[in-house]
Design brief:
Strand content: 25-35%
Distance between the termini: 34 Å
CATH topology of the domain at 322-504: Rossmann fold
Structural class: alpha+beta
Shape: globular
Largest sheet: 11 strands, mixed
Mean pLDDT: 87
CATH class of the domain at 322-504: Alpha Beta
Radius of gyration: 30 Å
Number of strands: 56
Length: 995
């Protein structure tokens, strides 16, 4: 790594542009490349003459941080977006504001002009996560919805026909110029912060907080390459004007230059950063000139690149190309999957009990010569998923990113051998559907297991019909014990993998070595290990590895990359790695089954019993180390909440985990609920769909869970009136969902409830399978109108029918026609509330894990005599965000010296907050604060955050030395001041707030 005062070979520093006195959020070239615009947290936009390096104008007027800036195609206007909830259009020639656009409650993070300069598109932190189109000519706006998180980046394709949007929801959406959604790109595991088109428009690049860059085919939506090398969030990507290079800027303090023909890292520029901003990198539109930030993001550096030298230079980090194919074995329990998994992975056959959880084995690995001294490592991993019904709720979560599925059935079954086949086929289709356009083309093989136990119980004609109807790519009759058709099946698996359709991972050779080491640790059956222990073991096992901060960062990054493949799991607490993540499945399924055994049929279990392991589970499945088991159980509960399988309910008897899918109380109104109004028919993973719908409605704030029954849930609307859902299974993977309402439920409430249910089904079920049937009742005598009667009347153009009993007129208008056309959808509001509550429940488990492992995020130093109530409130709010604060009153036992405990604690916390109230400093603070801060900053490198509580506007005179540190100011009630809480979380974690 180069010293930050040096320039990499092939880079010539032309200018350093200084003038901003706040962090620079974005830099943008004018279309002709003669000027550069920069937006800043100092509330200004500066225009720079690139020949002289001088600032030629400063645009002032925003009252908040300026987050984004964009030139109009004709270079006459500059658009800027600010935290003051406005977008301003400035005339370049005069510096005057041409027009101001209100963003209501939103902050504009990104903007893009249409090719003709008539439309300005903006996205950011709007309440509804929408994208706004503003027409310059008509002065009118249009919004489009679709993302479920803030919109971080927008980019028009070079031909102006497509708009790409990257979001906090980890997805990219492609829209046409008429605002119609074309496709959804999924693959990143965290925020998409930046999207950019290649100059020829044939490729889209995205940068993410998951530390990777992805290259996409915008026509198919599939990932082409995954670039690994950065060791922190990748905040920005940019193509050079000629498409030869891709530049990326990361919070790891580097800018990387990648060759677009081999995707190797050509060179690395060290660029210390404030680690927070999503932009700050741009290529000149017509020359090999790159603008980056400098001096911790308050200056701009202009670099001239020697392209010929860089194209012929030795790569800065030698790379390896890796491609992984996931093959899954699914089917009902007892069909012989475990035996097949053994013999397919070249292990000797042995009789096995039914698989519990999932088992991941290496099926095939090969190094392929690609020419030009480039090689590709190819690997096929075989995932064997348990078939017991109790595992289905969990295993539905692992059917993404598959290249091939083997659906195994019992060849001897005399009843319905294909029941499980239909279920798993629908589950696979839905998993493909959830991945949208980014799904890998999936092939399927139908496999008859244990064929040696007796003849096949169904005719070959029926099998052939099934293969044809469900589009299987082949059929095999196997016996793992006798070896029948095992070699043929193995050959078919290898032949079915189309390596050209799978994403290619480009990693440094060091990254590849670390990945191999982690997989070896997993194969050695290690269970739970601290990251530090794994790192030391890696150093000992590698001859050329030398301990360094850079290597440690790379090791941590590789843990995340291997985790994304489902092979290991990093806990959210204790810096622990679970090397056998399939144990999470086993424990989760055991907990779910235990809830079903609850005597009153409420589908719940005491949370303390879960954490103590007091539930029925086979001893051969449990781990023997009880301390490790407790940590595993805390992580499992966290998983249940984050996956929206369970709810946490506080009662007088304590905290309970409630599983809507496991309630066995018979509902008195089944099968004909009073007030039924709509029936949805659908296909897909029925139990998952019903469970997550019930959980999200319960968390939505608009509807509150009132009662749970077997396959039924009743909710009370916030404005009054009861609504409910009732699930009726028709057959494997098919169901009906009936919506019913009490008379007091208003028309608006009914519509909102129905709209949310319908939206959830469109997200989670097979879209083409959804059918809605409205039930029309006479408002006078409650006599129903038959489906055929309603259809025939509507077919003839009538929107009413007379009741066959009392002659009262019955409206046949559908829900959308019965409410105002200008209504506002509350789905984004409900989604946001459900997501927030999910995060709070998940955070509670994370904090439990941190308390168990003594993992503290922040030391809260405060005046113990005066501020205790406010500090306790602050601690509670931090815990709701998954942060574990160290409080003296909670951690110092009676009889211990205060100072001694604190001195022992400081080296084990990640940050320290100095709480300052209107009551002034406490005795301890005034005497020891300087020594405390010196120890934090100079000796152990712990960030120190001054926190000023409401009523305090300046630092006390004794603490003026803290002015060098960025403070957090609470200006109102702690619970209400989310902006200050976001800033404090940012200071503690070093990660910008994702809200």
């Amino acid at each position: 790594m180069l010293n930050h005062h040096e320039s990499p070979s092939g880079w010539t520093l032309k200018h350093i542009l200084r003038g901003h006195n706040g962090l620079i959020s974005r830099v943008e070239w004018s279309p002709d490349g003669k000027m550069l615009a920069s937006s800043s947290f100092d509330r200004t936009i500066k225009l720079w003459n690139i020949e002289t390096g001088e600032c030629c104008n400063t645009l002032k007027g925003h009252s908040g941080r300026v987050w984004s800036v964009a030139w109009s195609p004709d270079e006459k206007l500059i658009a800027s977006g600010s935290a003051d909830n406005t977008i301003r259009l400035w005339r370049v020639d005069t510096g005057e504001v041409e027009y101001k656009i209100s963003m209501d409650t939103g902050i504009c993070l990104s903007m893009a002009w249409s090719l003709d300069g008539q439309i300005l598109v903006s996205g950011g932190m709007r309440d509804d996560w929408s994208i706004m189109f503003w027409n310059l000519r008509t002065r009118r706006r249009q919004t489009i919805e679709g993302h479920s998180g803030q919109v971080n980046s927008l980019a028009w394709s070079p031909d102006g026909q497509m708009l790409a949007s990257g979001s906090h929801d980890s997805s990219i959406r492609l829209w046409d110029k008429e605002t119609a959604l074309l496709r959804i790109l999924k693959g990143h595991s965290s925020d998409v912060v930046s999207v950019v088109w290649s100059p020829d428009g044939r490729m889209l690049a995205s940068a993410s907080n998951d530390y990777t860059i992805r290259l996409w085919n915008p026509q198919t939506g599939q990932t082409l390459f995954v670039l690994e090398g950065h060791t922190a969030s990748v905040n920005c990507v940019e193509f050079s004007w000629d498409g030869k290079f891709l530049a990326s800027k990361s919070s790891d303090g580097t800018v990387r230059l990648w060759r677009c023909d081999t995707w190797e890292t050509v060179t690395v520029l060290e660029e210390p950063t404030y680690k927070s901003l999503p932009f700050g990198l741009t290529f000149h539109p017509q020359a090999s000139i790159l603008a980056t930030l400098g001096e911790a993001d308050i200056a701009i550096r202009i670099w001239k690149l020697d392209c010929d030298f860089l194209m012929n230079a030795t790569p800065a980090n030698p790379s390896s190309q890796y491609t992984n194919a996931r093959v899954v074995l699914v089917g009902d329990t007892g069909v012989g999957k475990s035996g097949l998994s053994l013999v397919l992975t070249s292990q000797p056959f042995k009789p096995t009990e039914s698989t519990h959880g999932r088992c991941v084995s290496e099926f095939y690995t090969e190094k392929v010569d690609l020419g030009d001294n480039r090689k590709e490592m190819r690997e096929i991993l075989l995932w064997d998923l348990a078939g017991q019904p109790g595992y289905r709720l969990i295993h539905q979560l692992y059917l993404n990113d598959l290249a091939l599925a083997l659906i195994v059935f019992d060849a001897r079954s005399e009843t319905d051998p294909f029941a499980g086949v239909y279920y798993w086929n629908r589950a696979l289709r839905q998993a493909q559907n959830l991945q949208s356009n980014s799904a890998i083309p999936l092939k399927k093989l139908l496999v008859a297991g244990r064929a040696d136990r007796g003849r096949i119980s169904v005719s070959r004609d029926r099998i052939n019909s099934l293969v044809r109807d469900l589009c299987f790519d082949g059929y095999f009759e196997t016996s793992a014990k006798e070896g029948w058709q095992i070699q043929e099946l193995a050959a078919a698996i290898r032949a079915a993998i189309d390596w050209n359709t799978l994403p290619k991972e480009i990693s440094t050779e060091l990254f590849y070595k670390i990945k191999i080491f982690l997989i070896q640790q997993k194969q050695a059956k290690r269970l739970l290990s601290p990251v530090d222990d794994l790192y030391r073991n890696f150093l000992e096992s590698s001859k050329d590895a030398v301990a360094s901060e850079e290597l440690s960062d790379q090791f941590q990054t590789c843990i995340g990359l291997v985790e994304s493949r489902g092979l290991i799991r990093k806990f959210s607490f204790g810096n622990l790695i679970l090397l056998q993540p399939e144990l999470l499945d086993a424990y989760a399924s055991a907990i779910v089954n235990a809830a079903k055994d609850e005597p009153e049929g409420l589908g719940c279990i005491v949370e303390d019993d879960v954490e103590a392991g007091r539930f029925r589970m086979s001893e051969d499945e449990r781990i023997t180390d009880r301390e490790q088991e407790k940590l595993l159980l805390i992580a499992t509960v966290q998983e249940l909440f984050s996956r929206e399988i369970a709810l946490r309910v506080q009662t007088e008897k304590g905290s309970f985990l409630v599983f809507p899918s496991q309630c066995t109380r018979e509902w008195p109104e089944a099968p004909d609920p009073e007030g039924k109004a709509v029936i949805f028919k659908f296909e897909g993973p029925v139990l998952n769909i019903y469970t997550t719908l019930t959980v999200r409605l319960s968390r939505s704030e608009i509807f509150k869970r009132k009662e749970l029954w077997k396959n039924a849930a009743i909710f009370e609307a916030r404005v009054g009136g009861e609504c409910g859902i009732w699930l009726l299974h028709s057959q494997e993977g098919r169901a009906e969902l009936t919506l019913f309402f009490k008379p007091e439920a208003s028309e608006e409430t009914r519509f909102q409830f129905e709209e949310y249910v319908h939206t959830h089904l469109k997200r989670q079920a097979l879209p083409e399978s959804i059918r809605r049937r409205r039930i029309f009742l006479c408002p006078d005598c409650d006599t129903p109108v038959t489906e055929l009667q309603a259809y025939r009347r509507q077919e003839r153009g009538f929107d009413w029918i007379n009741c066959s009993v009392c002659e009262h007129r019955v409206s046949l208008l559908d829900g959308e026609e019965r409410v105002k056309a200008n209504r506002t959808s509350i789905i984004p509001q409900m989604d946001k509330a459900a997501n927030t509550q999910r995060e709070i429940e998940t955070a509670a488990s994370i904090v439990k894990g941190k308390e168990e492992t003594k993992d503290f995020d922040v030391f809260l130093a405060h005046n113990t005599n005066v501020e205790i109530k406010q500090v306790e409130t602050l601690a509670k709010l931090l815990k709701q965000r998954g942060l574990n604060p160290w409080l003296a009153q909670e951690q110092i036992p009676p009889g211990r010296w205060f100072q001694d405990v604190i001195q022992q604690t400081i080296p084990n916390v990640k940050s320290a907050a100095i709480i300052i109230s209107s009551q002034g400093l406490g005795k301890w603070q005034s005497l020891e604060l300087r020594a405390f801060i010196r120890k934090c900053v100079e000796e152990i490198d712990v960030p120190v955050i001054p926190v000023l509580l409401p009523g305090v506007t300046t630092l006390p005179e004794k603490l003026l030395f803290l002015r060098e540190l960025n403070s957090v100011y609470f200006t109102k009630n702690l619970e209400e001041d989310t902006q200050a809480l976001d800033a404090l979380e940012w200071g503690i974690t070093g990660k910008p707030p994702l809200r």
